[in-house]
Amino acid sequence: METQESVVDVVHPVQSTVENHQALFSHDPERAYKEAQRLVSVVANRCTGPGYLVNIRGKQYPKIEWWTSVSASLGLFPRVLYSKRLDRDDEIAYEAKVEVHRNGQIIASGEAMCSNREERWRNADEYAIKSMSITRASGKAYRIPLSFLAVMAGLEVTPAEEMPSDATSSPVRPTGVTHNRQGTDSNATPQRPQSQDDDDVPSPKQQEAVRSLIDNPKVYPNEKRQIHEFLAEGLTRAKAKELLDFYFGISILVEGAWKKTGNGQLDLRS
What we know:
Blueprint: E1 3-7, H1 29-46, E2 53-56, E3 59-62, H2 64-73, E4 77-85, E5 93-102, E6 105-115, H3 126-152, E7 177-179, H4 204-214, H5 221-233, H6 237-248, E8 251-254, E9 257-260, H7 265-268
Antiparallel strand pairs: 1-6, 2-3, 4-5, 5-6, 7-8, 8-9
Helix pairs in contact: 2-3, 4-5, 4-6
């Protein structure tokens, strides 16, 4: 995957004149920081869960839905300049460029590509590859003016769509240390949906833990709807682990005992 990014040299997201209407926050540094903190607080409550974030090896990566939600609240909107197929033999590859505008002014731009040479897109339809090139370019463009908000929210600044496919899978477990699947029982025999292989089916304890989130008062209504959809569509073992790690936190098994290595969203919400 190849990505490029650019930004208009004269643009300064916080320090900008009133006349060009490009300042995202107040021109006063102290006030600007407080405004940013307030926005981050709102984002932490509303733009959370699997619909906005992806848990990769214990770190939270924002999806394009997170970037677009935050940017819209600041009056930033994307404009696709192009998404063109590259002339390559035996390969379906698209390159896209997206600009981010505010009040008619270009704030930033980003370029990215997607190809069926990538593992996760090897069997994808052409339209999906083209669409992902636009999605990646959009995330790249948003990242430039908004990355500091992701940092303030405790997130990684790399858009989730840019992460390589092997990064989304669980790391290889060293001897004596395994990642917690939040209730996975290696001796349990999972019920097998017709469309899933045994290795891809969550254990009964995982399924029970995921269903318990629907009744948890700390899980937001929009997140509960998404969990319902995951269950209805056929929850995979990987998705169950992602959900449980996100809400309950990640633990590791050391010498026969589970040790929690980080808080989940349920620990952080009052």
